[in-house]
Amino acid sequence: MSSSVTRAAGNEPADPSAAVRPAAATEPAAPPSARAAETARRQGARLLRPLLAALAGVLLYVSFPPRPLWWLAPFALALLAACLRERRARAGFGLGLLAGLGYLLPLLVWTGEEVGPVPWLALAALEAVFIGLTGLGIALVGRLPAWPLFAAAVWVAGEALRARAPFGGFPWGKLAFGQADGVFTPLAALGGTPLLSFAVALCGFGLYEALRTALDHPRRATAALAALTVVAPVGAGLAARPLVSDAAEDGTAVAAVIQGNVPRLGLDFNAQRRQVLDNHAKRTEQLAEDVKAGRAPKPDFVVWPENSSDLDPYSQPDAYEVIDHAVKAIGVPVAIGAVVSPQTGPLRNTMILWDPVSGPTATYDKRKIQPFGERIPMRSFVRIFNSDVDRVRRDFGPGKDPGVFDMAGSGVGMVTCFEAAFDDAVRSTVRAGAQVIAVPSNNATFGRSQMTYQQLAMDRIRAVEHSRTVLVPVTSGVSAVIRPDGTIERQTEMFTADALVTEVPLRSTETPATRLGPLPEYALLLLAAAGLGWTAARRIRARRAAA
């Protein structure tokens, strides 16, 4: 048979020399020690990414108040990007979940201050799942051109989801809320907390991309684009500074913030509800004496904290008398935080405008009711894990409308405690005519934890976002007066009785963030959807090409 026929039949070896190559020419097997070293190296590499993802979460936590380390947030996200870049979706979820646990377990530890670890662990784990989903999304868009832009939008989408679900959402821990002292902060006045979070995330992901391309000796154009994702958000923050102003547009007012203190810490602080009320009444009467003696300026209005009267003044005459006496003593309108107990229906967490002549007039019912704090969803199921749910014997119900009190000619908008975490609650109050924002709060349940400092930083972001003075009266501290540029003018110590009397600017101009409302967030959600849709389209095309 000719050689051509032999080749056609497939009988000729591809390499003729292979037919005569001795068997001894094959490479020797690696020794057991080398195989063990290689196995250990691979296992170490598999463990490194999870460890780095958890570390990224811890660094993100450390960037939050009370530590002034806001600049750590971009580095934490750069580290997370290094873990997620070009990973599969399932790995992205797992690594994001680990980052979420590293971040939220220490950030939310105060939620178990008096009720034990189960609620804390459950809440942190649930919220970490959302960050896991965010990690999944970042992994999916990580192979796109200009991926840091899409990844930052995916991060904002994750925060938007956390702010709405489940049970009405829990926005605590937004990137924006850790940036009260940061260079990006003025962006809150331009596009609210979504734009501020986006800028921090873009800077972090862009920082990783810039380092990666620099190490890979990229083309100049690629390097310039990567650097732009870091420079652009920083430059935008600096460019937005003219939007931040604390000038008095409608004159000024002298505001007083009362911190009466509580008789004891923890969940049982309100077991002596009359004592809490008396503390705030006495501190107001003491302020009245200081005004008469010339030791303090006379305020135009006074704001008490949330739960400063857990006794319903409408149904309990002694509570009414204590409040009315204190208000008459100071002689100006006072906003009182009370628990109102209708004969039927849910309780109301109410701010009452109390006039020294007319008594109680206008009211505002808190709209964002805290799940598992002021109301207990799935009560019978939750009781299996923690019997403390029965401390909330009667759920609170939400109000419907924003509350702006006319206090001696000043429009003072009420945003009660937990509501300050929600963009729409604060914005609707400003749009309703608030020249000053009041955030009456009750942090006594959380002892001396970092919760009060996290909330104070949140209030500072709201001041910049809407260019309004923010008054923060808290039962046990830290109470504060925050100027429209986000700086703290005065603040109290924790668990002391005190009064802050300060002249504050009245402002009516709406920032772009106030006017635009949720539109910047919607635009970023569309950007995230575009990135995920682009990824899906590329995968479909690749599968068709392979088929």
TrEMBL record:
Q: Which GO terms describe its molecular function?
A: N-acyltransferase activity
Q: Main location per UniProt? A: membrane
What is an annotated GO biological process for this record, any one?
lipoprotein biosynthetic process
The EC designation for this entry is 2.3.1.269
Keyword annotations of the record: Acyltransferase, Cell membrane, Lipoprotein, Membrane, Transferase, Transmembrane, Transmembrane helix
Per the database record, which ranges form the CN hydrolase domain? 258-506
| Family classification | Belongs to the CN hydrolase family. Apolipoprotein N-acyltransferase subfamily.
- What's the protein name? Apolipoprotein N-acyltransferase
Q: What gene, per UniProt, encodes this protein?
A: lnt
